[in-house]
Amino acid sequence: MSFVILDLEWNTAFSKELNKYVNEVVEFGAVKLDSKLRVVDTFSSLVKPTVAKSVHPHVKKLINISFEEIINADHTFPYVLDSFAEFVGDSVLLTWSNTDLHTLIDNCALHFMDENLPFISSFCDLQKYCEYELGVTSHSRMLGLSACAQILGFVEGENQSHRALEDSMLSLKCLKALYNKRHFEEFVEVCDEEFYKKLRFKSKYITNINNPNLDSTQLHFDCPECNVRCIRKSKWSKANNSLVAFFVCPECKESYKGRVQAKLKYEGVTITKRLVANKSEKTE
Fold first, then answer.
1. 229 near 243, Cβ under 8 Å?
2. Is 49:22 a contact under the CB 8 Å cutoff?
């Protein structure tokens, strides 16, 4: 079994054909590994833009590529994608999160009117795997590549300037540091119809207390001091992407503010709860 770790750099531009902003790929960077995670080949190519006329100001702060470099690139996206597909072969594709897959799909839709990636047979989300090995379980904040590398002692501070091949190599260092063959294999997915359904599913926060996807048994809190079920003293209200209500402990009379964040994902609803003391109010 071989593996390919891919990283993309892209530029945000408005597509008249799609009538929306797209993340137009401007660089591919990838490293191919054998079954023992040894580097056997690399792939690096700039992509000549067909939509963008300049580098978006926000993107300019993130990538270390000038517009002059990409406008003078030798090949446009279709040619580079074909070359990359040949490079991948039957390898397992890895990316840091599935964002690069979404970007590939958007660019395929732009150039081919096709949202599938037939050259990818299996995939692993390296971000999810590293989070698992590090014990990171937060539903609200994903682990960035630079943050992971910093935890593992590979970089000092946040890496603010990116190039695709460099980032794919950094991903490899993180993988090698955390690699457990048995665990890793559990994160490899077959890219079948179910995979694409999951990939295209749009996760969203639930902020309506009457939403049928919200499990009412999750809307309670126990007093951290007494371990007694608190009584809700207010209606639930929306606060940003969360539901908030006030509670009181029937034993110690301590007043609390409870926050529930529910997110509907393809696999189901994830719940994050937080209870903090409401110091401005205490029931006698």
1. no
2. no
Mean pLDDT across the stretch 100-125? 91
Report, in angstroms and rounded to the nearest whole number, the Rg of the chain calculated over CA atoms: 23
Euclidean distance between CA atoms 20 and 180, whole angstroms: 42
The last residue of a domain, from among 146, 176, 200: 200
Whether 102 has a pLDDT exceeding 90, the answer reads yes
Distance of CA 163 to the CA centre of its chain: 18
pTM above threshold 0.85: no
* Model confidence pLDDT, tens digit, residues 9-67: 998 888 887 788 889 999 999 999 999 999 999 999 999 999 877 776 666 666 778 88
Q: In angstroms, rounded to a whole number, what is the distance separating the alpha carbons of residues 98 and 124?
A: 9
- Chain centroid, CA 15 distance in Å: 24
How many helices, marked H, and strands, marked E, lie in the chain? 9, 12
Name the domain boundary from 156, 181, 200.
200
Give the CA angle between residues 26, 156, 165 to the nearest 5°: 25
